[in-house]
Amino acid sequence: MKLEITAVSLDKIRLPENPLKEHPDGQIRQIVASIRQFGFNDPVAIDENGEIVEGVGRVLAARELGMSEIPVITLLHLSEAQKKAYCIAHNKICHNSGFNLERLRSLIELLCREDDPALLEATGFAQAELDDLLAAPMEPELGGELTGSMKDAPKVICPHCGEAVYV
Predict the structure, then answer these.
(1) Which residue, 40, 79, 144, 166, is most buried by CB atoms nearer than 10 A?
(2) What CA–CA distance (Å, rounded) separates 18 from 124?
(3) What whole-number distance in Å separates Cα of residue 77 and Cα of residue 83?
(4) Dihedral of CA 11/12/17/22: which sign?
(5) Is residue 141 located within the same domain as residue 159?
(6) What are the pLDDT digits (tens) for 65-102?
(7) Which of 74, 96, 118 is the C-terminal boundary of a domain?
(8) How far, in Å, CA of 154 to CA of 165, rounded?
(9) Are 25 and 88 found together in one domain?
(10) What integer pLDDT is reported at residue 164 of this predicted model?
(11) Do 60 and 122 share a structural domain?
């Protein structure tokens, strides 16, 4: 199966009647900043009727930016049930792992040296999150605890090894 990316007019793309995810204004602003900084690099998936299977936030951001068309892939090979399952999978699977905090800190520090606030804004992290990341220790000492607001950071416990991953 070969998927083709095509440009489709925004007025031909239909929002789902009941979108799976919420897209608050702040998140749309983050997507807008990302598109401005990096371009529209993640095609929206639509079905044969032009309804979004995944990518509602990107479409809302594109509208906010006044774009007339966006890149899409049309999923003709999925049943109605598969479209729903893919929508869930697309939106959930990326949340099933956390960041490598040491690597994230290293990349954020590198971006800070670029002295380009728009570049940092386009990462999707709020300034307070960046400040916490740069200030907090990465690993608690043996028997110690995380300090600062990182101790309140959400964590996921790996079902296989039981390790806590802070996200």
Answers:
(1) 40
(2) 25
(3) 9
(4) negative
(5) yes
(6) 999 999 999 999 999 999 999 999 998 998 899 889 99
(7) 96
(8) 8
(9) yes
(10) 52
(11) no
Entry pTM? 0.76
Q: What is the pLDDT of residue 144?
A: 42
Domain span at residue 155?
A: 101-166
Q: Using CA atoms, how far apart are residues 48 and 76, in angstroms rounded to an integer?
A: 6
Domain total of the chain: 2
For residues 91 and 113, membership in a common domain is answered with: no
112 and 51, same structural domain?
Answer: no
CATH of the domain at 47: 3.90.1530.10
Portion of the chain with pLDDT greater than 70, in percent: 81
Indicate if 87 and 153 belong to the same structural domain.
Answer: no
Between vectors from CA 69 to CA 63 and to CA 70, what angle results, nearest 5°? 85
Say if residue 142's pLDDT is above 70: no
% helix, strand, coil for the chain, step of 5: 45, 15, 40
Note the pLDDT of residue 152. Answer: 55
Residues 112, 91: Cα–Cα separation, whole Å: 29
Query: Quick check: 149 and 132 in contact, CB under 8 A?
Result: yes
Structure tokens at 166: 């802070």
Around Cβ 52, how many Cβ atoms within 10 Å?
Answer: 20
